[in-house]
Amino acid sequence: MRVVICGAGQVGFGIAERLSAEENDVSVIDTSHELIQAIRDSLDVRGFIGHGAHPDVLAQAGVDQADMIIAVTLYDEVNMVACQVAHSLFNVPTKIARIRSQSYLQPHWADLFSSNHLPIDVIISPEVEVGELVLRRLEAPGAVDAVRFADGQVVTIGIDLGENCPVVDTPLSQLTELFPDLQAVVVGVLRESRLFVPRSSDAMLVGDRVYVVCKVDQVRRTLGIFGHEEPEAHRVVIAGGGNIGLYVAEALEARGSRARVKIIEMSRDRAIAIADRLKRTVVLHGDALDQDLLQEADVQDADTLVAVTNDDEVNILACVMAKRLGAASNMALINNRSYPAFAGTLGIDATVSPRSVTISKILQHVRRGRIRGVHTIENGLAEVIEAEALDTSPLVGKALRDLNLPDGIRIGAVFRDGKVIVPHGSTKIAAKDRVIIFATADKVRQVEQMFRVSLEFF
User: Fold this and answer.
1) Tens digits of per-residue pLDDT, 288-335?
2) Of 35, 149, 154, 341, which shows the fewest CB atoms inside 10 Å?
3) What's this model's pTM, rounded to 2 decimal places?
4) What mean pLDDT is predicted for residues 230-242?
């Protein structure tokens, strides 16, 4: 696949890194000499210095032969114009743009991005995606990661195993014997920076992070079995009243949540503006690192503090302070890809990465085959993929025990006719089934092949 990426920032670099590692033909455009030089030095891609919306720069980058353009510069307008130029002058089949401003995304302006106006096939809004991820984490207290598939009926959760985990040192094969009616499958284990798909004889250890695929109504029970019985958050303090903080508060109000929410916002004007939009949420003006203000927000009694300011360091320190003041749990928005690795040692329970969320959303549309959803795990060490099985797929019609799936791939669930099937050795996948698969990074291409096989394959 030939892909042109406009923007060499964190998201652009991350997408280029993933696609080039999978032997795609990638070109990256950015106005920054430093960013382009960095991407040339570290990745097997072509870098071009220039404006991503200018036709001559796009032509130089080979957009006339591209299958896709991904516009993720810092500016919404540049991203939109880049897609327009790629469509009108170069007839690029697929156009993806990151658009942050919520003004462009209002439902009554939805026709703006149609083929007759601004022809963008996929719009990525990081604030919305991150906001939804925060909401899912609030629904699954104790999980360090949570994402839904199969129309919301299947959930993949990441769980850290502590000393109080009752199933530590228990081989996976015995989990079925201990909990025969548990509708969940352990698909991945992160142990000392190594992510692998466990065998049935493998046991989980203290300090492991396990990834489990389960039915949505089994999430709380699954968390309890793995040693996490934290109650659902009813007292929430949000540090940062930007687009993400406001989105989370509005969503909690709109969904009739019983949670009592308080927001701390540094800008007085912004605090007044969001207070006018919210009905039940208390908005406090001040610094999220001010201990007196945190106590005024009753953080000592909070079930969780969610830190979503624009500053990673503020988010980390706010979480640390809240925990020491008595908050039961915390969650930090972190952009720097190196920070999450040691966040746990500081007492941070969960992190959210706009970069990872955006990359996951884009990969959903980059992956070949009938891919319906993608979620990246641990900065790209693995992916959870939802894909639809074709009639000609080698998966169809065979018992799972006879498929001989390679190491690094595990089927977590099958979604058929609106019902979730927890896979066993005798389970057979049928055409049009939606399959949720966990795959390590080096096996993603094989998963793609399983779901894009045509008659020519045979």
Assistant:
1) 999 999 999 999 999 999 999 999 999 999 999 999 999 999 999 998
2) 341
3) 0.79
4) 90
4 within 8 A of 29, measured Cβ to Cβ: yes
DSSP of 342-403 = HHGGGT--EEE-HHHHHHHHHHHHHSSSSEEEEEEETTTTEEEEEEEPPTT-TTBTSBGGGT
Evaluate whether 11 touches 72 at the Cβ level (below 8 Å).
yes
Task: Please report which residue ranges of 210-366 form alpha helices under DSSP H.
Answer: 219-225, 243-254, 268-277, 291-296, 312-325, 340-343, 354-366
CA–CA distance, 161 with 180 (Å, rounded to integer): 21
Mean pLDDT of 216-226: 91
Q: What is the pLDDT of residue 38?
A: 94
The contacts of residue 430 (CB under 8 Å, 6+ apart) are: 389, 396, 397, 416
Listed in sequence order, the residues at least 6 apart from 174 whose beta carbon sits closer than 8 Å to its beta carbon are none
Residue type, 407: D
Band the pLDDT of 26: cuts 50, 70, 90. Answer: very high
**233 touches 138 (CB < 8 A):** yes
Structural contact between residues 57 and 76, judged by C-beta atoms closer than 8 angstroms: no
| CA 230 – CA 217 distance, rounded (Å) | 16
pLDDT at residue 369, as a whole number: 62
Is 274 in contact with 265 (CB distance < 8 Å)? yes
Instruction: Report the percentage of the chain scoring pLDDT > 90.
Output: 61
- Pairwise CA distance, residues 202 & 187, whole Å: 12
List the structure tokens of 252: 């909690």
* Spatial separation of the C-alpha atoms in residues 381 and 439, rounded to whole Å: 9
User: Are residues 24 and 3 in contact, defined by beta-carbon separation less than 8 angstroms?
Assistant: yes
